[in-house]
Amino acid sequence: MKGLFVDALPLLEYGVSSLPAPGEEESGDLHLVKQTERGALVAVVDGLGHGVEAAEAARLAIAILEAHSSEGVIQLVRRCHERLKHTRGAVMSLASFDTIENTVTWLGVGNIEGMLLHGGLAENPRLETIFLRPGVVGYRLPPLQAMVTPISAGDLVILNTDGIRGDFAVQFAPEDQPGQIAEYISSNFRKGDDDGLVLVLRYRGSSE
Fold first, then answer.
1. According to the model, what pLDDT value does residue 183 have?
2. Predicted confidence (pLDDT) at residue 192 exceeds the cutoff of 80
3. What domains lie within the chain, and their CATH numbers?
4. How far is CA 84 from CA 5, 9, 87, 138, 165, in A?
């Protein structure tokens, strides 16, 4: 069953649309959005394959990330790698928002794509993409390298698993609410043979 979830933190508003693979009751594609002392940690995790075992690997990774959300993204991936070694493994992309510095720190292992649209409400927003390293968390971890990027109020961040085609940028109205954008992407760019999840966030900036 397809699911759409919308919510907001003081510094982020976001929407998530997800759908399990055909014939599966449970999706192995999961997300986390959690407020931290300096901002927020955002993650999308894709357990390898689909079905129950994929969902188990993804749930374990999400639990680890939530329990240690104040740590840096490199340390978080390493924690997940150690704990997921007895599972089928997962790929993941993390984004750590810092409202003091107004930056986002990105890290991706595997094929969960991420993009940052600067000036998300502008007619022609500037696009940046997350730097992905090939590998599987819990099986083969590549050398980890995080990227730090300035971010401003109104910027959009989109993370999508490989069940969603990545050619949607920018084929939606950037001024729409994150939930509307997530639903549009999920409905129009899903591959159909795998779990699919898209997470759309708009950065509100520091509350000060």
1. 93
2. no
3. 3-203 (3.60.40.10)
4. 27, 29, 5, 4, 27
CA distances from 40 to 66, 88, 186, 203 (A): 11, 28, 24, 10
Q: Which two tokens stand for residue 131?
A: 């730097």
CB contact at 8 A, 131 and 91: no
CB 121 within 8 A of CB 175: yes
53, HSE (Cβ side, Cα atoms, 13 Å)? 6
8 A C-beta contact, residue 105 and residue 147: yes
Cα–Cα dist 77/90, whole Å: 11
Q: What is the largest CA-CA distance in the chain?
A: 47
- φ/ψ (deg, to 5) at 176: -65, 160
SS3 call for 79:
helix
pLDDT of amino acid 121:
52
Q: Which DSSP symbol is given to 27?
A: -
Are the beta carbons of 78 and 104 closer than 8 angstroms?
no
Q: What is the arithmetic mean of pLDDT over 124-143?
A: 89
CB-CB neighbours of 38 under 10 Å: 14
Sequence length of the chain is: 208
**Pair 25, 85: CB distance under 8 Å:** no
The arithmetic mean of pLDDT across residues 78-94, rounded, is 97
Q: Give the Cα separation of 156 and 103 in Å (integer).
A: 13
